Amino acid sequence: MMIYFILALIALFLFYLFIISPGALPGHSDPALWEISYAHRGLHQKDKMIPENSMTAFAKAAEAGYGIELDINLTADGKVAVFHDDSLLRVCGVDKLITQCLSTELLSFRLENTEQTIPLLADVLKLVDGQVPLIIELKNTKDWQQLCVKASEMLDDYAGPYCIESFHPGIVSWFYKNKPKVVRGQLSAGHRSFDGTPLWQSLLIASIMTNVVSRPHFIAYKHQDAHHRLSLRLFRQLGGKLVGWTVRDSDDTVECMQFFDMIIFEFFRP
Asked: Active-site residue 28, yes or no?
């Protein structure tokens, strides 16, 4: 009986490895993606004189030779805007959803009371122009499939190195099925970090078991939750990459840079 129990455990473990396995990196993928640290929402400042996800923050990151992590969502007229939150309230002081705004309105909203406005992805791509790699996070928005289509069409014409990531496994899966040559990543964290998400969903994403439907090439994990997770170590042993978010000046930056293949950072310069 013991031998059958051991065999069952081995079979279960192998099945788990199959579930969490990464996708094979596209042969053409740029090695530069894995050889750099990424400025979180651009090289913005803690005093907000250079705001997050602003053209100045992106220009400063490119000038310093850092990769850039940025967030995209759709406007009401279907343009791809670079903005993190669902609402403009925190950053622009306007109680309105980004998805309710027309792209022409974006110039009237100021980021953190500066002269900076909400950019479009097209403007950011033109600015960066392949100088440094990009990590582009697609937000979990109502029309996420349209966001995938619009973003991928724009990125098809972009010559610089980039990859995409999302907390939404459906978005990562969309790229797996429709744009398999695009390097893709699953954003994740410990399940307690998913406020407002049903427990079963947060457990699946935290345990990276959604990999079975999206086969990400990398896992971008909240660095505070990552260090003792066997699943992440197994994922790396199977050929996947690990990215740590968001490493700040008050964190153990040396430990993070040793544990992860790359880091997404803010408020210090690696």
From this structure: no
